[in-house]
Amino acid sequence: MRSHTVYETFNTERRREFxxxxxxxxxxxxxxxxxxxxxxxxxMHITAGVWVNDDEPGILEDxxxxxxxxxxxxxxxxxxxxxxxLSPDPGDYRHxxxxxxxxxxxxxxxxxxHQVILPITDGRLDLGPWxxxxxxxxxxxxxxxLVIKVLGE
Amino acid sequence: MRSHTVYETFNTERRREFxxxxxxxxxxxxxxxxxxxxxxxxxMHITAGVWVNDDEPGILEDxxxxxxxxxxxxxxxxxxxxxxxLSPDPGDYRHxxxxxxxxxxxxxxxxxxHQVILPITDGRLDLGPWxxxxxxxxxxxxxxxLVIKVLGE
Amino acid sequence: MRSHTVYETFNTERRREFxxxxxxxxxxxxxxxxxxxxxxxxxMHITAGVWVNDDEPGILEDxxxxxxxxxxxxxxxxxxxxxxxLSPDPGDYRHxxxxxxxxxxxxxxxxxxHQVILPITDGRLDLGPWxxxxxxxxxxxxxxxLVIKVLGE
Lengths: 153, 153, 153
Prior knowledge:
The structure is a homotrimer.
Chain A: E1 2-10, E2 17-20, H1 22-32, E3 36-43, E4 48-53, H2 57-70, H3 81-86, H4 103-112, E5 115-121, E6 124-125, E7 132-137, E8 144-152
Antiparallel strand pairs in A: 1-8, 2-7, 3-5, 3-8, 4-7, 5-6
């Protein structure tokens, strides 16, 4: 059995950003020498996710609009009445009592999920034709880490 | 270490459909000869999910109603005001500018998640008494693939 | 390759409860003798989840409020109009026709996801500084099981 671990650090310019990392994950697989196995791609933070989706700008923009309604930031006006009612009832996230302002990012992380696991077949990520792997930053502008762990033979 | 990979193709009659696949996954485990390990079950499309839930018709119907409110299709009337406000603000998904009409399926895929990983113990899927594995199709009527990857010993 | 399987039973006092289990998972890793690998932590029920988040009381309380709006219980008044519209249209979950009252817990399980997979590096859970593992009970007050499966070398 072989295993190989790679850490990556992201420091996005914008607060929220989708960064395509399919190539990084394939590179970790290449370096591992694994031809049959699994690779875990997991954010090491609770305000960032990992997402497999289409690399199509429209859907990524749709996603951020939609996530801002379902998990509304309190550092900007709610997008509409639904976002307002999905905001916390005390007026702000209880989590912010300690000085944070990223409560929404915790819930976006919950919706998107913070990890994926990808199959490796014949040394290649065994993905469908439109599946790309994204690091989904919801509270960026500072260095944040991701772990890629390859396991197999 | 043993590994075994199976691809399945689904071509559902209806646009949305839950297909129970617990037996297919167990069969892949049987064919792998693995008695202790993990099996990944992952949709190879970004408009379909894999879900572990109860095989109870009521909950599956509830799920589709609920997912249609949270991630509203734009090819039919929004179910109610909440669905209307959770629809994209430009009137339609930006993703549809290229001629697609399945933006909602991308978000249902995000909510349901496109994969599960199941433990294998003594050669059996180590599931709870009500846990069944479903392929969750949100944009069917055409052939779509799923990968089952068994890893273990 | 080594594998090690541990089952845990939770019988929470309250109907909904977040139970921190990072220590339990590390203990399973210790007992497995695995220094490089993966560990799956998966609820064996369809009304409980496993969540990696911050062990900060505010965010956990925020989470329950928010999940009760998105996946509204029918055994108490909807929190507000959004929760009312996200409730099932027939007035109650179809799932309840068989005498159940936990339809909301199925959907909270879907949102939170019922499992995580954690990397093991040098014999330690390879988590970020604020990542804690929680068992998320949404329909407690009775014994429910969780499986921890370690795989590696």
